[in-house]
Design goal:
The protein folds into two domains: 191 residues, no CATH class; 110 residues, Butyryl-CoA Dehydrogenase, subunit A, domain 2 (Beta Barrel). Helix content is 45%, strand content 19%. The protein is built from ten helices and seven strands. Strands 2-3-7-6 form a four-stranded antiparallel β-sheet, with no helix packed on it. A three-stranded mixed β-sheet has the order 1-4-5. A hairpin with a 5-residue loop joins strand 4 and strand 5. GO terms for molecular function: acyl-CoA dehydrogenase activity.
């Protein structure tokens, strides 16, 4: 019942605030974040990370910041103990990929002590990190050695982006959402206290489920942005109704186990509906100003990112249920 009530709460918030959207241009990530924090003051207690992602899309004047809102919500969903007021960059992918065997960054326990805590040292690098330059915290996957089976033991370390030994290098901007920076990151003897290492297996708890969690929350952010456009440019009532239905569906999924095959099947169905919906609203962007239309056409490619990986997860879900067509 709580999940259902929570879903209705986000719908209530959207409808109550649709006439009070700040339409002035956003001047960078900090400006967007300030607007989201202002909106957060009115959040009901039942709001969760998906709700926050949606509202972050509503206050965004372009898909870039709607994406960042969803990305931020996804990281908070998998690591709920991190500071709520900080932007956290998820640092996993290396030269050989993001599978545990591809992670060569290492965490080594030392004889050092800081306060009452054992100190570890982090060395290695990450090839492609979203919003590292705009983040205050880096959530870093690293090997803490190998187990009896010879496999990497992956841990997640919480690192201050300004810590000594952290070096960021901007990488080429994507052809869409260019306002969100991407970087490679090098870690050289970075000091890591025991309390900065998150509990549990880094791969199963924080990495394996992330792409699904990210899909749910990023699409929530994008739907929030489309709701903004519908509100500002006077789109038909039926469009708003479909938007609210899609948002409600994503919110329900955000509360479930992201590793569940049933979640992958259901999410696939929601995304099919979303893609059809995006096609249906194409003519309505003619009601928007030229700059808004230009940015939407530029950034809508985000909706097709990682389709092959998503399809592979869906096929595995069907196989695990013994249902092949």
């Amino acid at each position: 019942m709580d999940a259902l009530q929570g879903g209705v709460v986000i719908v209530d918030w959207l409808m109550e605030n649709r006439g009070a959207i700040d339409e002035s241009p956003i001047n960078g990530i900090d400006d967007w974040k300030a607007r989201l924090e202002k909106a957060a003051a009115s959040f009901p207690d039942k709001f969760n990370d998906l709700d926050g992602a949606v509202v972050g899309g509503v206050v965004a004047d372009r898909v870039s910041y709607a994406f960042l809102s969803g990305y931020r919500g996804a990281v908070r969903r998998i690591a709920p103990g991190l500071p709520k007021d900080k932007i956290v960059a998820y640092c996993v992918t290396e030269e050989k990929g993001n599978h545990p065997r591809a992670i060569e960054s290492i965490l080594v326990k030392t004889e050092e002590v800081s306060g009452n805590e054992t100190v570890w040292r982090l060395n290695g690098g990450k090839k492609f990190v979203t919003c590292a330059e705009g983040a205050e915290i880096l959530l870093v996957a690293a090997s803490a050695g190998t187990g009896g089976d010879g496999r990497n033991i992956i841990k997640m370390a919480v690192i201050d982006s300004a810590a000594e030994g952290v070096a960021l290098t901007p990488t080429m901007d994507l052809p869409f959402i260019p306002e969100i920076p991407h970087s490679s990151v090098i870690f050289k003897d970075v000091k890591v206290k025991e309390s900065q290492i998150l509990p549990g297996d880094g791969y199963t708890k924080y990495i394996k489920s992330f792409r699904t969690v990210e899909d749910i929350h990023v699409m929530g952010g994008v739907l929030g942005y489309i709701f903004r456009a519908a509100s500002i440019f006077g789109w038909p009532r039926e469009v708003v109704q479909k938007l609210l239905g899609l948002i409600y569906g994503l919110r329900a999924l955000s509360l479930e186990d992201p590793l569940s095959p049933a979640v992958h099947l259901t999410l696939s169905g929601v995304l099919l509906q979303l893609n059809e919906f995006v096609g249906e609203i194409d003519p309505l962007w003619e009601r928007a100003d030229d700059e808004t239309k230009r940015m939407w056409e530029r950034d809508r490619a985000l909706l097709s990112v990682a389709e092959k990986a998503r399809e592979a997860r869906l096929n595995r879900a069907w196989e695990s249920l013994g249902l092949l067509f």
